[in-house]
UniProtKB/TrEMBL annotation:
Its cofactor is pyridoxal 5'-phosphate. The keyword Lyase applies. SUPFAM superfamilies: ACT-like (SSF55021), Tryptophan synthase beta subunit-like PLP-dependent enzymes (SSF53686). It is an enzyme of class 4 (lyase). InterPro entries: ACT-like_dom_sf, ACT_dom, ACT_ThrD-II-like, Ser/Thr_Dehydratase, Thr_deHydtase_catblc, TrpB-like_PALP, TrpB-like_PALP_sf. It comes from Streptomyces orinoci (Streptoverticillium orinoci). Residues 344-417 form the ACT domain. The keyword Lyase applies. This is threonine ammonia-lyase. GO terms for molecular function: threonine deaminase activity. Keywords: Lyase, Pyridoxal phosphate. Its EC number is 4.3.1.19. Belongs to the serine/threonine dehydratase family. The gene is ilvA.
């Protein structure tokens, strides 16, 4: 799905001023010199063939701390006064912003405290600690951690580092846009994930200031799409309960600073489903050999969902690669199922000697690989002479899945799911 964004004049530059300037982004680039990496821009033959023009992947998943977040965090902390630095900084995050603040503060010699939800993935907690932050687990969701961090700032005088709603944060993230123009001067469309809006807003400022003809497309998860209703209302609108596996863009309300920029400079906001996110993550892993988190794969999901809607050359920003291994396992399985390469079935058979072997014999002729099998003989739902089998199969596409179901039904096995 897609939504148009604010009206612009004929040149593509908005009539109203935006809260972050090209000069601020260029200043941020100087501040980050020698600190952050100029991440690679990799071509994708598969996506290029699909879209019909060159597609490049901007690999912020290979940035220090595994995401673009360190850019804005470093610029924000670097601009603090000596007294503010002495008071320390505090942040709240479930992952990427936490690690970015921790590393940035350590590099600048500033004490940092990061509040994280109690259910945050252990690898992200460990990484944040290893980058030098004091980690405090509080609450079940990031909003609760955020309230705790703000209270800590009020009580101690520490400076609260917002993940996206500050001009310095947006300027730092905008350095990605400058790099894109340097690496791909012929770019026609930039596609970027959209959560609170800091990255999309920063890229939009950098790119539109120098190349107003380039389209900027923001991508949100359908279950956490706060920008479409906010753009319709003309101001940030909060979602009651954003839900998506893409925690990097699971933001319930746009930031005031990035919203003002997105409204004026971003050309379109598109939404993608969970299935499309899973498929994009799988494609990045298999075709590009890149580990990308669901939020980072959202631009690829948008390209896969509507390849004909993007004028090339296209740059898709892979914003991060900090994916929890357990989530990766679930997402990959989900992505394989969405692509027809993984099939889960429940069926019933007569409980007699050799019945399971006969079922497996049918499967052996179907060219499906049995990954796992569960055989239940005692259950209140089953008749005395019945058994239930749950099968997990590796398959070769949707047509193969349909043929496999038909083969089982013809062999007399009722497929329950």
């Amino acid at each position: 799905m897609a939504a148009r964004v604010g009206d612009k004049d004929a040149s593509g530059i908005p009539e109203d001023d935006v809260p972050v300037t090209l000069e601020a982004v260029r200043g941020a680039q100087k501040t980050l010199s020698g600190v952050t990496r100029t991440t690679a821009l990799e071509g994708s033959r598969h996506l290029s063939h699909l879209v019909g023009s060159p597609v490049h992947l901007k690999c912020e998943n290979l940035q220090r701390t595994g995401s673009f977040k360190v850019r804005g965090a470093y610029v924000r902390i670097a601009h603090l006064s000596a007294d503010e630095r002495a008071a320390g900084v505090v942040a709240a995050s479930a992952g990427n912003h936490a690690q970015g603040v921790a590393l940035a503060a350590s590099l600048l010699g500033v004490r940092s405290t990061v509040f994280m939800p109690q259910g945050a993935p252990l690898p992200k907690i460990a990484a944040t600690h290893d980058y030098g932050a004091e980690v405090r687990l509080h609450g079940q969701v990031v909003d609760e951690s955020l309230r705790a961090a703000r209270e800590y700032a009020r009580r101690t005088g520490a400076v609260f580092i917002h993940p996206f709603d500050h001009p310095d944060i947006v300027a730092g993230q905008g350095t990605v846009g400058l790099e894109i123009l340097e690496q791909c001067p012929e770019v026609r469309t930039v596609v970027v994930g959209l959560g609170g809006g800091g990255l999309a807003a920063g890229i939009a400022v950098a790119v539109k200031s120098l190349r107003p003809d380039v389209r900027i497309v923001g991508v949100q998860a359908a279950g956490a799409a706060s920008y479409p209703p906010s753009l319709r209302a003309g101001h940030p609108v909060a979602l009651a309960a954003p839900v998506t596996m893409a925690d990097g863009i699971r933001v319930g309300r746009p930031g005031e600073v990035p919203f003002a920029i997105v409204r004026q400079l971003v050309d379109e906001v598109r939404t993608v489903s969970e299935d499309q996110l899973a498929g994009a993550l799988l494609l990045c892993l298999e075709r590009a050999k890149l580990v990308v988190e669901p939020a980072g794969a959202s631009p690829v999901a948008a390209l896969l969902a509507a390849p004909g809607r993007f004028e090339g050359p296209v740059v898709a920003v892979l914003s991060g690669g900090n994916v929890d291994p357990l989530l990766m396992q679930r997402v990959l399985r989900h992505g394989m199922a969405a692509a027809g390469r993984y099939l889960s079935l429940r069926l019933r058979l007569t409980d007699r000697p050799g019945a399971l072997a006969a079922l497996l014999d049918v499967l052996s002729g179907s060219d499906a690989n049995v990954i796992d099998i569960s055989h239940v003989r005692t259950d209140p739902r089953l008749a005395l002479s019945e058994a239930e089998v749950e099968l997990h199969l590796e398959t070769k596409g949707h047509e193969h899945c349909a043929a496999l179901r038909a083969t089982l039904r013809e062999a007399g096995y009722p497929v329950l799911s």
